[in-house]
Design goal:
The chain is mainly α. The chain has helices spanning 3-28, 35-42, 46-53, 56-76, 86-102, 112-120, 126-151, 161-180, 187-198. Helices cover 72% and strands 0% of the residues. The protein is elongated, with a radius of gyration of 19 Å. It starts with a helix and ends in a 6-residue tail after the last helix.
Length: 204
């Protein structure tokens, strides 16, 4: 086997492990990730799984990174073709709803980041820091989109981008709960009504 092929196969195996890790963690939390569980689910040896990460913590961090990449592909990227300003911000918000409603194959337990934020909010350590960092990145990106909408004249000039980002994160954590805990069929529509208030355009 050539070194190049060996590296490519190792990368594919690592991706298989983290993809399965994302699915497990969305249901059982990052602490629910075990080398034995992954080995059984993927038909691998424990040594084979462990060899790609070394420690459970490294596996948890890799799973978070994999989930962030999937989230970006499902939420941020579909909206990039929209007009900068409120149209793009609304496109992001709609993609966010779709992600929470339909990404069941990838996230059978709902938003992994919501699960991880509850699981690690009172803990110290690298996983807590990684969860906080990813949430912070997302909130800053939302705030930047709000600033773009203000600059475009789509939102009132006195809009507080950080406040809007704060409210959007809270809204979507609530949506995840409504879908997962209550199986509420009206959850998406309630979210859209809340968005109409939060993102009310500037009056002419």
């Amino acid at each position: 086997m050539s070194p190049r092929k060996s590296v490519a196969e190792a990368r594919r195996t690592r991706e298989r492990i983290t993809e399965r890790g994302v699915a497990i963690a969305s249901v059982e939390g990052l602490e629910g990730l075990t080398i034995g569980r992954l080995a059984t689910d993927l038909g691998m040896s424990k040594a084979g799984v462990l060899g790609h990460f070394g420690t459970k913590q490294a596996l948890q961090l890799a799973t978070l990174d994999a989930a962030a990449a999937i989230y970006s592909r499902l939420v941020w990227e579909p909206a990039q073709g929209a007009q900068p300003g409120l149209p793009r911000l609304r496109a992001i918000c709609e993609a966010w709803i779709t992600y929470l409603e339909t990404a069941r194959d990838t996230f059978p337990g709902g938003c992994l980041f919501t699960t991880a934020s509850i699981e690690f909010d009172a803990r110290d350590g690298l996983v807590h820091d990684a969860v906080a960092r990813l949430f912070g990145l997302g909130r800053r990106r939302l705030a930047a989109e709000v600033r773009t909408a203000v600059a475009a004249g789509d939102l009132p000039a006195d809009t507080d981008p950080e406040q809007i980002a704060y409210e959007l994160v809270g809204l979507y954590m609530a949506l995840n709960q409504e879908i997962q805990l209550f199986a509420a069929p009206e959850a998406a529509e309630r979210t859209r009504r809340a968005l109409d208030r939060i993102l009310a355009p500037r009056q002419p």
